[in-house]
User: Fold this.
Amino acid sequence: MGDSCEADQDIWDPFGTLRNALWIGGGQWAGKSTVARLLAARYRLTAYHYDYHDARAHNDRRIAARVRRGESPADPDPDDVWVNTTPEIMAAKTLQGFPTRFAWALDDLRALVSGHPIIAEGWGLRPDLVAPLIDAPRRMVVMVATEEFRQHQLRHLARAGTLGAGVSDPERAQHNRLARDRIIADDAVHSARRHGIRAMEIDGSQDANAITEMLADHFSPYLPEPGGAT
Assistant:
C-alpha cells in the first residue's frame, strides 16, 4: 500500500500523449502484441509493449519499491511466487500491484513524442486504469483467450509454456500460473463491461490478420490512412 500514491496522483499529460493513445488490454496469450505490431506497421503507429518494459526497464523501480516497503531488494524466491501459494492469492497480489505498475507505464508513455498515433498493449493496461484517461470507450479494446486457445498457445509458444524461473514443482507452478491468468483475464472482461469497453474473446478460429482487421475497424475514427501520414 505504500506505493499507492504513485497510482493515485493526478493524471499529468503534458504532450497529450495519453489522451490520444489507443489501448489494447486483456489476458495473457490472446495475441495483443501481434495485432498491435500489425496495426503499427499498417498505419505507421508507434507501438508501446507494456510487458517488455514491465519485465525489463521497470525492474529498478520494482526493486526500489521493495526497499521502501522494508523488504529485501532481491527477487522473491520462485517457489514462494509460483508453488507455495494459490492462484487466488497470486491473482489478488497481481491485481493489487497493477496500479503502481501502470503508473510506471504512464511515465514511459508521457516521454513518447511521436508524429504518429501511439498504440499501447499489455495485460497491465487494465480498463479501470485506462478509462479515466480516454475520451471515449472506443479508444480501448480488451482481448482474452478462450481456454482452448490458451492451451493451443501453451503448446505452440515456447514463452507461454515456460516460467523463466527454476522451481521445485514445475507442474504445480504452471497450474497455479494458468489459474491465476484465468482469474485476471476474467477480471479484465468484467472491468471492461463496467466501463463500456469492448471485450473480444479470441478462440483461434481467425488468424492474426483477421483480428487486426476487426481492431482496425474498431479504432477507425482515430487511425490515419494505411501507410500514410497522420
